[in-house]
Amino acid sequence: MIRYPLLKKGATIGVTAPSSGLDKPLHSLAIQAFERLEQRGYKVVSGNTVWTQNKARSAPALERATELSNMLHDEEMDLIIPPWGGELLIEIVEHLDFQRLPEKWILGYSDVSVLLLAITLKTGIATAHGTNLIDMRGEYQDDTSAKWESVLATNQGDSIEQYSSQKYQKKWDHDNPTPCVFHLTEETYWKSVGVNYAKMEGRLLGGCIDVIKHLIGTPFGDVPTFQKNRIQNEPILWYFENCEMNVADLRRTFVQMKLAGWFQNCSGILFGRSPANDSVGNYTIEDVYQELAHELNIPIIYDIDCGHVPPQITFINGAYGEVTVEDGKGKVLQKFI
User: Fold this and answer.
1) Of 90, 97, 136, 251, which one has the fewest beta carbons inside 10 Å?
2) How far apart are CA 59 and CA 123, in angstroms?
3) Which DSSP string do the residues of 311-335 spell out, in sequence order?
4) Tens place of pLDDT for every residue, the chain, 337 residues?
């Protein structure tokens, strides 16, 4: 059984940095995001880790884990949003008491997806993979990113639809943000291996493959047990996004996932657009997708709105998803059941 938190109007948002915080020159980005959220009726409470960054992390692991735990157990906190991702979130998972975690949304992506996936696998509590806090600092949010509020306000037993974006951002230009932060200039076109139309459904799980791969073989990445005990052997619909890995790195990771049982009873895989996916020799990302589709006998949809090439759909780990793509347009239906 999956348990779904619920976002209510006027919620209090706790901001903590379980991975990276902000160097002093970047503090204004968080302050702007706080102001925008407060204008939307939220109360924002910041932890100390948000404002520090040293040696590739906001603070030592135990300090990060303690601040996160305190916010999760604070009854006044309704939602946790880290400022952004980073590099070393995996250091904190051994310091969290998963047996005592309350039902509370955590929203983020990149390195934060380690925390999201571990929580859902260990506890059955749904978590939200979507826009991070720093990208909420604009005068408004694009239609795709802004759906995080509607998704997190969906009641258990209900469902919500999201659609592929009209345009996406090809390159970051941090020094010249638009009113919605992103520079959405390129036409979005979702693709599927071998066909023009594809449909898949199953329990959604996923995140940034660069980092969630390190959960394989640990107590925090036990997918087979989750599948058996939490979702009664329903099929899993994976979504992945790649930040920095080349295609050989990806291929090795997918083989490891397969050997670890992550793809048993898998109904399909979704791949986000990527700034990486560099070819090795004449081995391309399209080759990787085709090999996966053939080996696992599943549909593969790629270049979706997920990850480091924004905007991105809000995917709920644990929700029952139905995803379709036709003529480059995609629809994601998530059922909170």
Assistant:
1) 97
2) 26
3) ----EEETSEEEEEEETTEEEEEEE
4) 999 999 999 999 999 999 999 999 999 999 999 999 999 999 999 999 999 999 999 999 999 999 999 999 999 999 999 999 999 999 999 999 999 999 999 999 999 999 999 999 999 999 999 999 999 999 999 999 999 999 999 999 999 999 999 999 999 998 899 999 999 999 999 999 999 999 999 999 999 999 999 999 999 999 999 999 999 999 999 999 999 999 999 999 999 999 999 999 999 999 999 999 999 999 999 999 999 999 999 999 999 999 999 999 999 999 999 999 999 999 999 999 9
